[in-house]
Amino acid sequence: MATSPEPGEFLAQLTPEEAADLRAVGRTRRWERGETVMSEDDSADWVLVLTSGRVKVSSHTAGGSEVVLAVRGPGALLGDMSALDGHPRSGTVTALEPIEGLVVHDFTGYLSEHGRVGVLLMRLIIGRLRDADRKRVEYGAFDTTGRVATRLVELAERYGEQTSEGVRVALPLSQDELAGWTGASREAVSKALRSLRDRGLIETGRRRVIVHDLEGLRRRAR
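The line above is the sequence of Crp/Fnr family transcriptional regulator; the predicted structure tokens follow.
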């Protein structure tokens, strides 16, 4: 079942007419949690507009370890670079929970008829590049606890639900995946989470985090 797109994501920026035209040239498909949606180095040229659920985008090093590049939610556009430049996919997309999305094969044809959407896409790609630059700075300037705090702030702001205890986040990532997202070992991430718990900033459970002090977590992230 489709849900409202996240603010700033591709689908959220389309007009009703542009979104209707996109749906007219696509088809709906579903994946279960853990299924691979797109594979790194695959030469397929279709794109996916996520309409419900969350995915991780990841890549693997020569040594076989997984590096999580991003977590995307409803409204996200995936696979656009391969559709535009014809090169193999640069990452693997995996469903973190049951997802649904719109598969579009002739995305370049759609863009040729919707010039404004092409400009939106250019801005989205620039935003991803800026985000990648910020993460490179984090890896060089922040310790593991700071990087973990930064990722938890991001999840809380994007997916958090305000409760009487604090901001509750249904964490879609395992500790191994969180480690891959922060560029640290699983042991270092466990230590960082323990440090944040000891400060009273968060509470953790199975695939969930409650942020008791979001502003304090932001300060630790900085």
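Note on the example: Residues 22 and 85 are 20 Å apart (CA to CA). The helical segments are 16-24, 80-85, 107-113, 115-141, 144-159, 175-182, 186-198, 214-221.
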